[in-house]
Design a protein that fits this description.
This protein has helices at 4-14, 27-38, 50-56, 74-85, 92-98, 102-111, 126-137, 176-192, 214-229, 241-245, 247-253, 271-283, 310-323; strands spanning 17-20, 43-47, 64-66, 117-120, 146-152, 162-166, 199-203, 234-239, 265-267, 288-295, 301-303. It is an alpha/beta fold. The strands form 2 sheets. A 6-stranded mixed β-sheet has the order 8-7-9-6-5-10, sandwiched between helices. Strands 3-2-1-4-11 form a 5-stranded parallel β-sheet, sandwiched between helices. Strand 1, helix 2 and strand 2 form a beta-alpha-beta unit.
């Protein structure tokens, strides 16, 4: 059974530094960082004007606060941003101005090693978090940066199980090769978040040829590409949601499926399907849905839904800490 406490305990052992660019204008983030610091889940780095923040909340005297304008190594960050973007036409003057943006500043802190990871998005669209990450930190390899949601809870259907839902927040219309890459990244996420043996289902409105279209063919091809490269991972596709998740239905619709209606990694054909599904599971299903968690970045930067609560911010911070590479690695 999946237990969020296990992830929290693992994060405590790592003691990674997570930077929060929104604490100056996000009450939810402010409450979350207090919990993180009090419970010693991770080291906390706040972005903002220290005097203003402490005047707002005196307990912040105990926190490390950094200001984009007065940061001692500011010119190093400006130069890093300029070098990353000069081929796209950015001037040093533009980099100097953009470094003052809290999202870019926090991302640069991660890139330059002043923080291990970043959590943002409670008060801004996904693009505010993802764009700087893609421009500055970039992907680990040739595969694209994608996202997933960690969904968990204890309703009658899930029964304490956790799921990875991908991609629900970044890649709008993935082709077959991209879907396969998303699945590979999602398997790594499943291992990091300790949700159990990975069982990957490539989802469609069709199960094993029950319908025919370009969309169905894309999902089937994605499964074939993935299976060829990842023979040791249980996977199947194309599958309808019920054939992937309900054992009784799987016996009728996909009797030969190796995942036997017990998938824990769901790969959606496009962002529309993924985003709608995660919100449905959260608000109608009563489950916890944390993310978008970015996958395949060199260093972890993670986004929050603007509908998040304080607990979501705490848990995403835990996940971000778990994504951080250990120094010995």
């Amino acid at each position: 059974m999946f237990k969020i406490k296990d992830l929290i305990n693992e994060a405590k052992k790592k003691q990674k530094t997570i930077v929060f660019p929104e604490v100056s204008f996000s009450d939810r983030t402010l409450e979350a960082v207090k919990i993180l610091q009090k419970k010693k889940i991770c080291k906390v780095l706040l972005v903002g004007d220290a005097s203003a923040l402490i005047l707002r909340d005196k307990s912040l005297e105990k926190f490390e606060i950094v200001n984009p304008v007065t940061f001692p190594d500011r010119q190093k960050l400006v130069k890093t941003l300029y070098e990353k973007r000069k081929k796209k036409g950015m001037t040093i003057e533009e980099a100097d101005e953009l470094e003052k943006d809290p999202y870019y500043f926090a991302t640069l802190l991660v890139e330059c090693g002043y923080a291990d990871g970043m959590v943002a998005g409670a008060e801004a669209p996904t693009a505010n978090t993802v764009r700087p990450a893609l421009q500055i930190i970039k992907a680990k390899n040739k595969n694209p940066v994608s996202s997933c949601f960690l969904v968990y809870g204890d309703n009658k259907f899930l029964k304490g199980k956790a799921l990875i839902l991908s991609d629900c927040g970044v890649i709008e219309k993935p082709d077959a090769q991209t879907l396969s890459s998303i699945a590979e990244a999602s398997v790594e996420s499943a291992k990091a978040f300790k949700i159990g043996v990975p069982k990957v289902a490539f989802l469609s409105y069709s199960t094993k040829g029950s319908a025919k279209s370009e969309d169905v063919t894309k999902v089937r091809e994605a499964y074939e590409i993935f299976k060829k490269k990842n023979k040791d991972v249980l996977s199947d596709g194309e599958l309808q949601f019920d054939a992937a998740m309900v054992k009784e239905v799987s016996k009728h619709k996909a009797p030969d499926s190796p995942i036997e209606g017990d998938a824990n990694i769901l790969i959606f054909p496009d962002i529309n399907a993924g985003n709608i599904c995660y919100k449905t599971t959260q608000y109608i299903g009563g489950l916890n849905a944390v993310g978008p968690i970015l996958q395949n970045l060199k260093k972890p930067v993670n986004d929050l839904s603007r509908g998040c609560n304080v607990n979501d911010i705490v848990i995403l911070s835990v996940i971000t800490a778990l994504q951080c590479e250990d120094e010995k690695k």
